[in-house]
């Protein structure tokens, strides 16, 4: 069974104001999870990154994400803090501190003033593909589905203490970086490597690991890495994104979009703005369609892969849940409209609670394996 890994980024925020809190050197490095995976420092001193081990099933992923989020919640509680599972914080001081490391020093030097306002959290999914040329072909399949994936997973509607009007403000902030959003279509591995090397030669990126495309080939692992999704409110939301990502990568008979980068980027902007009310491009026909129609078209394309992997029942049910309850961005906006910061705080606490949604609908099919 095709292995995958999940990387989740979170912010530690003040319980009362939901403003990010900087952590002292060594604090994050001491955090561990007893259920597998790792908790690592991230770009800002207010950030964590939770990284699973290589996994084969969504049931295993659910268990690891559960333990990792619970460990973060246990760390935050005595600090009168909350772990924010959102693509951007509700509010900020605008004085973010960058973590000390040679890599982050190079990145912050590259980004200049952008670096201190770059408070963004993503969900990254690695899908293992043994052959390098097959990885490039999978990347070409993935790129056409990036707008609908973003529409389904937008979860950053706030900035500066107010609604932005965007489902994914994180995506707009990331747009400021070089070599971001949709990758071009590549002829083969040599073409991929040549285009990345040209970006390095231009000093657009300092190294391969700084490439900010919404999907790319991992420089460390034999994986295709999807980076388009915001950090997700709940574990089930993260598992849903991972299951869809894996299914697209392994569906080698799926359509390869002929759309140019500009068209896919336009779809990403509209998806970031309107979420599931967006109009996106169908990768098979290159014609405009609404996001819900595109999402069901995607399910049809990857249905066989989802069934083979044991994820079809969970993914189908989660799509219906998104229709009923809304995406993460919609749930955040509704909670804030109903009860202000207390409503948002309850959402974030529920997302990292040890009794979270894993015990419910998540991976019912996979758990029977």
* Element pattern in H and E: EEEHEHEHHEEHEHEEEHHEEHHH
Stretches where pLDDT falls below 50 for ≥5 residues?
A: 354-369
Structural class of the helix and strand makeup?
alpha+beta
Radius of gyration: 19 Å
- Please report the distance between the alpha carbons of the first and last residues: 12 Å
Shape: globular
Helices, by number, come to 11
**Biggest beta sheet attributes:** 7 strands, antiparallel
Average pLDDT, all residues:
90
Total number of beta strands: 13
Q: How much of the sequence is in beta strands?
A: 15-25%
Helix content: 40-55%
How would you describe this protein?
The protein is an alpha+beta fold. It is 42% helix and 15% strand. The chain contains eleven helices and 13 strands. The protein has helices at 58-76, 102-111, 132-143, 146-153, 169-174, 189-201, 235-250, 261-274, 291-309, 312-325, 328-352; strands spanning 4-14, 38-41, 47-51, 81-84, 122-128, 158-159, 162-163, 180-181, 212-213, 215-217, 223-230, 279-281, 288-290. Strands 1, 2, 3, 4, 5, 10 and 11 form a seven-stranded antiparallel beta sheet that branches. Helix 4 crosses helix 9 (291-309). Mean pLDDT is 90; it is low at 354-369.
